Amino acid sequence: MSFKTLSTALVLVAATAAAQAQAANPGVEQLAAQAGVNAGDFTTSQLISLQNAINSQNEEQVAFILSQARAEASRATTAEGTTSPAYRQLEADLGVEPGRFSPAELSQLAAARRSDEPARAAYILSGENRASAADDANNAGKLQLAAALGLNPADYTLAELTARVQDLND
């Protein structure tokens, strides 16, 4: 087989695979439509889990699955700053400012309201639940890891120190 023929065959195989990947299965499209999300952002398994969580009214599971969307970032926002319809719906149901809370925070807020814990809900709404840079600097675990490695804790994040310990143990 000549190089030209082989190259053409590879291009055709790649193009066919790409076209098949883009063509959505009607069942997947239907699952996504029922859940109010974009089919291309979730695997079939995620869509089934999302639908089950919606049916059982498990807001924590719904928020977690929505946070796992392929096209979404940690706060379920795209590069353009828009959010998925399901994420916006969860924000609207909870009556919070769009884009202000992460999916995990929305789950915690929903659980606090469901459990009738107004103090916990107020704490989440205040934003005080978020760790600050000062908290990281005073983390006892970080200080201990840095001391064990003989490093200055101010020069490294906790993740970097943990990675160094793992490198030493490998």
Automatic annotation (TrEMBL):
* Signal peptide (residue range): 1-23
Record's keyword annotation contains Signal: yes
Listed A to Z, the keywords are: Signal
- Name-wise, this protein is DUF4142 domain-containing protein
